[in-house]
UniProtKB/TrEMBL annotation:
GO terms for cellular component: plasma membrane. The keyword Nucleotidyltransferase does not apply. Keywords: Cell membrane, Membrane, Transmembrane, Transmembrane helix. This is YihY/virulence factor BrkB family protein.
Amino acid sequence: MKAKTIIKDLPKLLKKTGVNWLDSGPFELSAIVAYYAILSLPALIVIILNLVGNIWGREIVQGELLDEITNAVGIQTAESIRVMMLDRGDESVSIFTTIIGIGTLIYGSTGVFYQLQAAFDKIWKVKENPNTNGFLKIIFDRLKSFGFILIIGFLLLISFVLTALISAFSKRIEVFVPDNLFEYVYVIDFLMSILFIYILFAAMFKYLPGKNVRWRAVKVGAGLTAILFVIGKYLLAWYFNTMEPGSTYGAAGSVILIMLWVSYSSLILFFGANFTKVYADMYLNNKDDEVIIK
């Protein structure tokens, strides 16, 4: 598909996407994802810290994550999350308790991605196969969700490594190049963060739905979603730091801010998922009646 054709049809694409987005119940879906995000957050943090921290250093990873969280939702919420990151692994426990604990962590951390799968299936109008074993499907979906946690950990690790390399490189060349040229180093860092967001969204749009989504639609949809997400991230940071919506809720403010951030971000994600489907319908002859979970 030529880029000129897509640009010409963009108003029609966006209009159809908006209609489908509203019809899919995005506010209800985002509220569900936000609720499960709160339940998944402690386990998700523990797994990410152990995955990436054992390679890059737990304290470094913790500091980097807290910096990102502070920029997104403020110091108070970051401090609440910091408490979740405190190491509780020094206590002596039995093997059985350890196994149960690991299973609980995996199950808890995958809740948010499990709900995203359900939301994407609703957007793609996926029909469940009545012959499918429900228990096995739940296990498979949970394992697939855990795979996305591994992807996040891998992308975070690469991001930390490249950021450290750029930082070290910039310090060495700072004395040799003009200030206006030196700023391009940080532009590269910013573009890399967009690339990682794009890869994560592309993986979600491709593998989370219970149907085969063609890469051509995934690439376009993930690109638009990544751009909207980055714009939304800065707007949300401004909104949270200026309006302080969590201050109304007192001690529960941090939880409310996290839920708001996830909810707003999910609205963008679902818009991108709907755009991907509309694109596939218009240009790739996608047919809903062939969409069945196997």
